[in-house]
Every structure is written in C-alpha cells, then in structure tokens.
Amino acid sequence: MKFNNKVVVITGASNGIGRGIAKAYLEEGAKVVLADIDEKAGNTFLTKIANSDHAVFVKTDVRKEEDIISLMKTTIDTFGVINILINNAGKVLFKTVYDLSVDEWEDMMHTNLRSVFLCSREAAKYMRTNKDGGAIVNMSSSRAYMSEPNTESYSASKGGIIAITHALANSLADDHITVNSVSPGWIETKHYEHLRNIDHEQHLSKRVGKPADIARACLFLSNKENDFITGTNLMVDGGMTVKMIYED
C-alpha cells in the first residue's frame, strides 16, 4: 500500500469521478479529506466507508477563497500534513455563445479554473514544509483539445487547467512538489449498464471509461516513485482524441 497514511485532499469528492478517486486512495491506505459543496452526498459516502477514521468531509465551495483556506487548515488540524491534492471539482455548461452571460462565464472560470490556482497555492504552503514535498493532480478534460458546440466556457476553463499545470510545475519544483493534469474523455459515472454497443465500439479501447480509470491515473501521478513526471498532461480517453473521424 504505497499511500499508507498519506493525506490526500480531493475536491469535488462527493460524486462521480471524485468519489471514485477517493475510494481508490482509501483502498490504498491513504487518509482522505473529501471536499465538496454537496454535503448530503459527502456524508452519505462517509457512512459507506469501512474505516471512517481515515476520511473526513469538509463542506467547501471552491469558488470561495475563504472556504479553500479553511479546507487546508482543517486538513492540517485533523491529520497534521497534506501530501497530495487532487483538484477535481468542476462543472459543465452547454449554452450558445450568443446567450452565454458574463456571470455564467465567470462562474465557470471560478469553479473550474480559479479553484485550481487557489487550492494549489494553499496546499503548497503546507506541502513545502514536508521532507518529501508533495503532489498535485489537476482535472482537465479532452475538451481542452476538442470541443462540441456551445461549450466555450467549459473548454476554455479546461484548457487553462493544462496551462496552469505546467506553470505550477515550474514554480513549485524547488519545493519538490510535482504538478500534473489528467484529461478524462467519456467517463460514465451513473448508468454504465445502459450504454449501447456503439458507445463502447467508437473507442479504440472498445469501452467507455469508468471513474476507476481516472483514479488509477491519479494514483500513478501522485506516487513518489514517479516524481520524474511533472508538468505534463495524461489523456485518459480510450483513444478518442487520436482518431480521424469522418461523417458518412
């Protein structure tokens, strides 16, 4: 168990991919801080965890600087250290560019992108005091490279995450903190059994992704044995972004 007693902060941990990531770290012996605005789902998840001494939930709105500062302080007060940060919190908005408001644009940036900056800044303040530094993994998206119509705010925020990832990797290198990003493709978090054969077959992997696929990527990038990897983005999309796709 390479993460035995390592302390991991995961934003957006109550549902979907974040919940899958939290489960994976707990199974590897880590102590996990679940940070999410969805308090009900977070506490429900806690009740299903066998070893609750290894996990706490902290209600956090990642759009608010004061919430993020409090999250990191609570982590230190509870477990004494921060070893790993997973910046997973995010939201999606499909809206025509003609109707997208400035407030909606800014909400997307604050939720998806500014939160990465704030969480990384505050966690790094504690990580830099660790003997072996720390690891930060940011959740980008395949939409940083390709888009659907009406996803301007989402695509821009995810592209920004890749950019801030390599910037942070440079800035935090002297403190022995690695910074990488993961770009999920289609990850089905609710009704995997309802997917059609055509959904699976369009992937080179011949299947749609699961939260566990992203969790394994996070485990890999935050493993101290892999600290030669920093400032990079790992695409986890079943090969979709390398396909030539033509319409009949």
Describe the structure.
The protein has 248 residues and is of the alpha/beta class. The protein has one domain (7-242): NAD(P)-binding Rossmann-like Domain (Rossmann fold, 3-Layer(aba) Sandwich). The chain is 40% helix and 15% strand. It has a 7-stranded parallel β-sheet with strand order 3-2-1-4-5-6-7, sandwiched between helices. Helix 1 (16-27) links the parallel strand 1 (7-11) and strand 2 (31-36). Helix 1 crosses helix 7, helix 3 (65-79) packs parallel to helix 4 (102-127) and helix 4 packs parallel to helix 5 (152-171). The radius of gyration is 18 Å and the shape is globular. The termini are far apart. The mean pLDDT is 95.
The number of helical segments is: 7
The pLDDT mean sits at 95
**How many distinct folded domains?**
1
- The assigned CATH architecture is 3-Layer(aba) Sandwich
CATH class: Alpha Beta
Give the name of the CATH superfamily.
NAD(P)-binding Rossmann-like Domain
Q: Any idea what the shape is?
A: globular
Strand content: 15-25%
Radius of gyration from CA coordinates? 18 Å
Instruction: Provide the CATH topology.
Output: Rossmann fold
Series of secondary-structure elements, N-terminal to C-terminal: EHEHEHEHEHEHHE
Strand order of the largest sheet: 3-2-1-4-5-6-7
N-to-C span:
49 Å
Unreliable sequence segments: none
